[in-house]
Amino acid sequence: MRIGLYPGTFDPVTLGHIDIIRRATQLVDRLVIGVAINRDKGPLFTLEERVDMIEAEIGKLSKETGCEILVHPFENLLIHCARDVGASLIIRGLRAVTDFEYEYQMVGMNRALDDTVETVFLMADAGHQAIASKLVKEICRLEGDVSKFVTPTVNDRLRAKLF
Fold it and tell me: What is the pTM of this model?
């Protein structure tokens, strides 16, 4: 069984994330969404809220694709999380060249720690390349419409959290 790990903070989960999740299901038998506990980023949503939002979005996606999709919070090294869930593949989404520079360094470090785990990059769909969770929160905080960037459920949760 091929197991993939798609890590991130998902604060909040966006349509760009969901696009990567959908496409990643074509590469693996089981996809684990690793929700990072990253205190340095100061997330708007609690870990439990982020996990809940992702679980709400992936239920129907798992049925549609036939791929088992699980959510797994983690606070350790990414490579250790990959080992914990049995992943042989780390899936990363790319939006721009600046993403690649950071990801390139991460791949090198992860390969030095465990060269049995491969990293696969998926380019964000052109319609989702500009979406960043940080910008979605800022737009919503300033009372802008983020319905083009998140699902209706996430939009409601954002508005409830901010207003």
Answer: 0.94
